[in-house]
């Protein structure tokens, strides 16, 4: 059941390097808390907390949708964070929200375009607390909240994240914090009618992979091989000189014994961590990379295989289909398909997870949906994506876009590759159907995906 919205979308009065923190304090009403539910979303991506405890383990919420028509919100049961004591009547409670650029304001596509949906980040939170006597206390984002800086100096899904450990301080998440360097917020123009609950699963950390090798490249660079092409990021703990910088570059392959970033095109895929001089723990959360190899520079001392771990991140889908035979090469091919699926279901079914693209190509998914539906329970994932497809179609007079969500309609040029002789290869949309053809194909396109889902659930035609 959707909430009766009273909260508003708010934005910080200063941008704070694209990673602002938002907070408010309130006091619980008298009475015993029976249930507490938080509804949260953002223009960008968010992490929500209550008194310093994250309300969930999901990451990069609310993901990527066709924001003009569908802004998803997450619903969290936070009763355990407000009960039992020491959260007694009169005790202060802090709601916190950490924002990042995400898909809303970050880079999208290969033309280095960004901020396709808006130039300002924003957050919306509504907390509903039901007491034993039946009354409900509602606390939500409004213009009384405050905004301040985080330790994140830069964040982008394609280019990576920079964190300065010298700026890390969780005091803002707790009662009594003084607002030095903090500013006000303002209500944004936002249509609540676009708010819609999640249909698909949340994105979460799924597993961890240790390196299989660490060595020095021909040019003297430190390379790490995780033994598996994956999507996510690298986590580590380290102690070094204050102000020293550890740089991590990611790629799927090697070239001439070095990290091969050429296939990434303009995506930097580079995380940086500035040390505090104490024992620091580094884990980005506002980016993701497709990689098997990493080049790590600035590490204090000699880097070992036990010093870093790769964190695999994707939408939370249950594995349902398996295959194994006597041919090891065929088994490896199947494993590649499984891992390729994992890497391309990070909220949106994409074509690739590593370069400056990562788009939901409709033709790709039309072909791959039956395989995806065999390997994983993608019912919710695809139904959520199909809702965006339907919204984009309505806006495009019934035409099926090349990608969903559709950034190409915003003047994003399709790539025109060169032939070996240097001449440009023309791009002809005819194979995908021109206007009338696409209109005729629309029901078939949707029915193909829906047919795959029915077969997976076992309720398709016998």
Could you explain how this protein is built, in words?
The protein is of the alpha+beta class and 462 residues long. The protein folds into three domains: 10-161 and 171-200, Galactose-binding domain-like (Jelly Rolls), CATH 2.60.120.260; 204-315, Jelly Rolls; 328-457, Alpha/alpha barrel (Glycosyltransferase). It is built from six helices and 28 strands. The strands form six sheets. Strands 13, 14, 17, 18, 19, 20, 23, 24, 25 and 26 form a ten-stranded mixed beta sheet that branches. Strands 1-15-12-2-7-4-5 form a seven-stranded antiparallel beta sheet. The chain has a five-stranded mixed beta sheet with strand order 11-10-3-6-16. Helix 4 (362-375) packs parallel to helix 6 and helix 5 runs antiparallel to helix 6 (435-457). It starts with 9 loop residues before the first strand and ends in a 5-residue tail after the last helix. Mean pLDDT is 91; it is low at 423-441.
């Amino acid at each position: 059941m959707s909430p009766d919205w009273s909260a508003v979308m708010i934005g910080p009065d200063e941008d704070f390097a694209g990673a602002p923190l938002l907070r408010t304090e309130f006091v619980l009403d008298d009475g015993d808390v029976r249930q507490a539910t938080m509804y949260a979303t953002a223009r960008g991506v968010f992490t929500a907390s209550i008194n310093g405890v994250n309300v969930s383990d999901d990451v990069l919420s609310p993901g990527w949708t066709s924001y003009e028509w569908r802004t998803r919100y997450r619903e969290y049961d936070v009763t355990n964070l407000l009960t039992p004591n020491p959260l007694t009547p009169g005790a202060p409670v802090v709601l916190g929200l950490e924002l990042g650029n995400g898909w809303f304001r970050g880079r999208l596509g290969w033309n280095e375009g960004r901020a396709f949906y808006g130039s300002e980040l924003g957050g919306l939170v509504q907390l509903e607390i039901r007491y034993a006597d039946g009354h409900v206390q509602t606390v939500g984002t409004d213009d009384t909240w405050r905004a301040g800086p985080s330790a994140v100096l830069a964040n982008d899904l394609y280019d990576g994240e920079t964190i300065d450990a010298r700026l890390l301080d969780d005091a803002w998440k707790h009662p009594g914090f003084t607002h030095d360097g903090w500013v006000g917020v303002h209500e944004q123009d936002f249509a609540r009618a676009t708010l819609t609950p999640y249909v698909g699963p949340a994105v979460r950390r799924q597993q961890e992979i240790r390196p299989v090798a660490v060595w020095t490249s021909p040019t003297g660079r430190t390379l790490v091989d995780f033994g598996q092409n994956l999507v996510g990021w690298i986590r580590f703990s380290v102690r070094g000189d204050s102000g020293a910088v550890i740089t991590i570059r990611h790629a799927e392959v090697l070239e001439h014994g070095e990290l091969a970033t050429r296939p990434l095109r303009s995506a930097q895929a580079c995380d940086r961590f500035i040390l505090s001089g104490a024992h620091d723990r580094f884990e980005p959360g506002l980016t993701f990379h497709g990689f098997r190899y990493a080049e790590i520079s600035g590490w204090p001392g000699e880097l070992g295989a036990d010093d870093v771990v790769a964190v695999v991140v994707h939408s939370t889908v249950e594995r349902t289909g398996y295959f194994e035979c006597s041919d090891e090469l065929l088994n490896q091919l199947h494993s590649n398909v499984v891992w390729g699926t994992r890497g391309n279901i990070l909220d949106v079914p994409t074509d690739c997870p590593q370069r400056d693209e990562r788009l939901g190509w409709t033709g790709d998914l039309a072909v791959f949906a039956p395989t995806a539906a065999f390997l994983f329970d993608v019912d919710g994932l695809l139904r959520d994506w199909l809702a965006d497809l339907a919204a984009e179609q309505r806006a495009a007079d019934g035409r099926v876009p090349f990608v969903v969500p559709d950034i190409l309609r915003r003047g994003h040029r399709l790539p025109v590759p060169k032939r070996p002789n240097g001449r440009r290869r023309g791009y002809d949309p005819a194979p995908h159907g021109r206007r009338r053809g696409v209109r005729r194909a629309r029901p078939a396109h949707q029915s193909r995906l829906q047919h795959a889902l029915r077969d997976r659930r076992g309720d398709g035609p016998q």
